[in-house]
Amino acid sequence: MKIPGSSFLHDRNPQLHSSEEVESVAEYLRAGGEHIPNEPADKISAHLGFLANRDYANDGILTGDQASIDRQIKAHVIKAEDVPEGYFELQQRIAREQGHGDIEVTPDMRSQLTEAIQSDQRAGLGKWVEYLGGDDGGYPDWFKSYSWTSVTKIGTYDKEKNEFQKRSKGTTAPYPELNREALAYVYDVLNKSRVEGQQVDGGANNDKLQELLKNGNFGKLYAHAILEVTPDSPELRNEIEGSWTTFNQTDDPRTSRRLSGSLQGHGTGWCTAGESTASMQLKRGDFYVYNTRDEKGKDTIPRVAIRMEKGKVAEVRGVNAAQELEPVMADITAERLEDLPGGEEYIRKAEDMKRLTAIEKKTLADPDAELTSDEIRFLYELDHEIVGFGYEKDPRISEIKAKRGEADKPELARILPESIRKQIESAYTAYSAVTDKLLTTKRGRFGKREGTVSTQELEQLFAAKDKEWQANGVYDYILEKLLADGAQFTLVATPNVEASEAQVVALAEAFGKEQPDETYVDDDLYSKGHYTGQELSGNKGTGPVRLSLIPSSFDGEMVYGDEVDVQVEKLRERRSKQPELDLRVPSVLEAVTYWYCLRAKGDMLEEMNAREKTSIIHFDLEPKTLYKWSVVPVSSVELGLPSLSFHRPYRNGVVGQARADVRLAVG
Question: Degrees (nearest 5) of the Cα angle 147, 149, 152?
Fold first, then answer.
């Protein structure tokens, strides 16, 4: 008897009926006396019946046989040797983002991570098998076979594209979440359209649905169904009334199952939906989920997740693309964060996202809309960096600026010098911290150290420098760098002294005392007298303070990939063409003072981009031989860890084989 749906399976895979597996089953049954017509649908029907017969193949997906199910699940769980190296590199990057520095992925850690991947994949497939083979769904064999075969070939759901990615043997992502309502939708429209031959009305999305039904691709139909039946619908996404659920830190598997189970079937994209991942995260700290109301008025739709680690807020995630927080969730999240340790920085993020969204709406409504001075200051990050809740920089910032063209340039030219002037307070705070640790002379009559300047004196020195910068084009230069490279310039007031090697190292180490990790210093380069105090300090002239501007990004004109000797020559040429700018590689003392300035401005340099802001390769200094290498000093702060290390611009005695980004001070 022909099984309903077998013709559809043939249409989906015209080669199925002639495959070795189907042909061999047909021949076997014919040899036993059964009449199996040679029509494709008939052979596929016979094959399905053979698989569903406990006396024959006893396919667990169709019969519920547990031993068969276990074998099939095992066959589709990633093998340890197939886990790509990039996955472990990703874990290292995540660790750096969380402030753990550069971790080593040990064999034990590799084994634990692999087991977590495998466990989540087993659990995910287990839910599909349990439902497909159980009484809840009551699906016919053709749909069970079609669904199972398809599910084992698809991977992560891409929210932006509304599609599932293809799965390979090296895919580490869990299998797609089982959404019972979405699966029922797929069966209903397929069965009516492709099996019973009825007309299916897809409503507003009818044209798209008809195209999907014609193709019959499970992944695309399931993705479409998720949008049709899950909380991503505009009506439910507009709902913000709800409540917080707390999952306390524990190693009890029942709590991790409850947490992961509450997230599954909602398309959050959070890795916590995997039970093993939920278990690992709950061992590190509490977990909070904000759920909004579903169609029945119950708080079951996850919209915000707050993960704690070591007693502090470690992560905040939303359900937008890239796990960004939805703008409508910003106030609710900020209110909750006020009561949590480490929540203050996240509150600022929520405020920034709300403000950025307002600017986005304004410019979308009218691309030529005039932005206020405050909006321009914010958009171009003149007062502080805009940091969102995703892993990467909010793409809206660059998108909005790209559309603005030259429209904001006149106002930027006006307010940019003003933004630099406002940095005098933070520059003096850093200057005072540096001189307190650097200068050991006694205090004078008015309480300040001899040889240092007061706030008023620094303001007077800056006023003179400000006029000089306006006259010689420094502000024009930093405006162009802001527009071209997105560079934010920090005003740095460096004591104009010749600090000794030991003093510079002590200053860097003192900075690390207030960071998450203490300063790393390569003693073989910085404690052996390789460089004079003048070389490390860069002091010149007779003034008490050197005022300079140091950018937050690498120099776009010194292209990454240029050989070091080419970079040296480029710098020489640029200096000769515009000597009034005083372009230069900051000295090591200036670099460390720059760290103090950034911290005085409120940047603890714990974010992923800290290295990009701070790393300076001091390639203007003479290379030294260290560990049989030719090296130059490099200073940086990476994920909170300050470092005085070295860079290898020369290898095997050959100039320029190593390449590096370049940061140049001006002024």
Answer: 100
Q: Return the beta strands (E) in 310-365 as ranges.
A: 312-317
Alpha-carbon gap, residue 581 to 489, rounded angstroms: 14
Look-up: residue for tokens 């150290």?
A: 449
For residues 73 and 125, the answer to whether their CB atoms sit within 8 Å is yes
Measured CA to CA, the distance from residue 449 to residue 496 in angstroms comes to 14
**Spatial separation of the C-alpha atoms in residues 667 and 46, rounded to whole Å:** 83
Between CA 340 and CA 306 the distance in angstroms is 10
User: Distance between CA 656 and CA 566 in Å, rounded?
Assistant: 8
User: Roughly what angle, to the nearest 10 degrees, separates helices 275-284 and 107-133?
Assistant: 130
Low-confidence residues of the chain, pLDDT below 70?
A: 1-2, 94-102, 134-138, 181, 229-235, 265, 269, 271, 274, 276-277, 321-322, 389-392, 440-451, 559-564, 649-660
115, 118, 224: which is closest to 179 by C-alpha?
224
- Which is nearest to 118 in space by CA: 83, 153, 72, 71? 83
Q: Residue by residue, what is the 3-state secondary structure of 239-284?
A: CCCEEEEEECCCCCHHHHHHHHHHHCCCCCCCHHHCHHHHHHHHHH
Angle at 171 between CA 166 and CA 173, to 5 degrees: 95
Three state DSSP letters for 46-59: HHHHHHCCCCCCCC
Q: Which residue has the tokens 């439910």?
A: 236
User: What is the distance between the alpha carbons of residues 396 and 394, in angstroms, rounded to a whole number?
Assistant: 5
Count of C-beta atoms within a 10 Å radius of residue 485: 15
> pLDDT value at position 246?
97
- Strand extents, DSSP E, 407-506: 489-495
Q: How far apart are CA 369 and CA 132, in angstroms?
A: 55
Burial (Cβ within 10 Å: 0-12, 13-18, ≥19) of residue 582: middle
Task: Give the single-character DSSP code of 584.
Answer: B
> What Rg, from alpha-carbon coordinates, does the chain have?
32
DSSP conformation letters of 190-255: HIIIIIS------GGGHHHHHHHHHHT-HHHHHHHHHHHHSTTSHHHHT---EEEEEE-S---HHH
User: From CA 138, how far away is CA 59, in angstroms rounded?
Assistant: 17
What is the pLDDT, as a whole number, of residue 191? Answer: 85
Where are the domains positioned within the chain?
235-404, 409-655
